[in-house]
Specification:
Order of helices and strands: EHEHHHEEHHHEHEHEHEHHH
Shape: globular
Helix content: 25-40%
Radius of gyration: 17 Å
Strand content: 15-25%
Distance between the termini: 11 Å
Number of strands: 8
Largest sheet: 8 strands, mixed
Length: 252
């Protein structure tokens, strides 16, 4: 049975999509059947893997009840990696979903045979704690939280952890935090060092050993429609995501 991970943090610009795309690619390149579902109306994960914003079917079709996530999956051209693309229309789902019965469980009900077909499924969430992220957290087994090593890093974590506790209590008791991953880290700065130390002191059991460095190649890769492991396999960013994928796999 496969495991479903939500990549979530309500703060924008912390590396959620970059982490989702590159971790999924690294796991797939290790030989495991992997699915990435893009739940962000900005469609960044979709574009980062070389797909157009208007391709169909999309995750919107799954949330509206017409299709399973398994049936909406399509090949990416990377061995063992499939994607359920997003669409800008998904922005409307934040208004539509709360009006539907059982709105928080729509994605969980649409999983179909995902667990049997894919060993790893990653859900790339939008930068909010709205209906799309809640659907991902209800459908997921585990959460990976990207945390940028900058001044406000800890500010949003308390709110996110409160939301996770609420969802555990009310909707998804099996949900656990797989770990927090420090992203866009510039080890030369005192600030990054201080934030890393503070996050590790606050959450000693949760923070992954791997740290994702601030790396130009990671930022370039989406413009080529490929993960950084294909764009610049020897770069520090690529090697860091390979280490992260191993850690995620080892934590189950």
């Amino acid at each position: 049975m496969g495991t479903i991970y939500a990549i979530a943090n309500q703060k924008g610009g912390v590396g959620k999509t970059t982490t989702a795309v590159n971790t999924a690619a690294c796991v797939a390149e290790s030989g495991y059947a992997t699915l990435l579902a893009d739940l962000d109306p900005q469609c960044n994960a979709t574009v980062a893997l070389g797909l157009a914003k208007d391709c169909e079917p999309t995750v919107y079709d799954c949330l509206s009840g017409g299709l399973s996530l398994e049936d909406a999956a399509r090949d990416t051209g990377i061995p063992n990696l499939s994607i359920v693309p997003s669409t800008p229309d998904l922005a409307g789902a934040s208004v539509e979903l709360p009006r539907l019965p059982g709105s928080e469980t729509r994605l969980r009900e649409a999983l179909g045979g995902v667990r049997e077909r894919f060993l790893f499924t990653l859900l790339d969430c939008p930068p909010s704690l709205g209906p799309l992220t809640v659907n991902a957290l209800v459908a997921a087994d585990r959460v990976i939280v990207p945390v940028q090593t900058e001044y406000f890093a800890l500010e949003g974590l308390a709110g996110l952890l409160d939301t996770l506790s609420l969802i555990q209590r009310e909707l998804n008791p099996r949900l656990t935090v797989a770990g927090m991953i420090l992203t866009m880290h510039d080890g030369r700065t005192r600030l990054a060092q201080d934030v890393e130390r503070e996050v590790r002191e606050h959450f000693p059991e949760l923070v992954f050993d791997t740290v994702i460095p601030r790396n130009v190649r990671v930022g370039e890769a989406p413009s080529y429609g490929v993960p950084v492991t294909q764009h610049a396999p020897a770069s520090s960013g690529s090697l860091a995501y390979l280490r992260l994928a191993k850690e995620v796999s080892a934590r189950g």
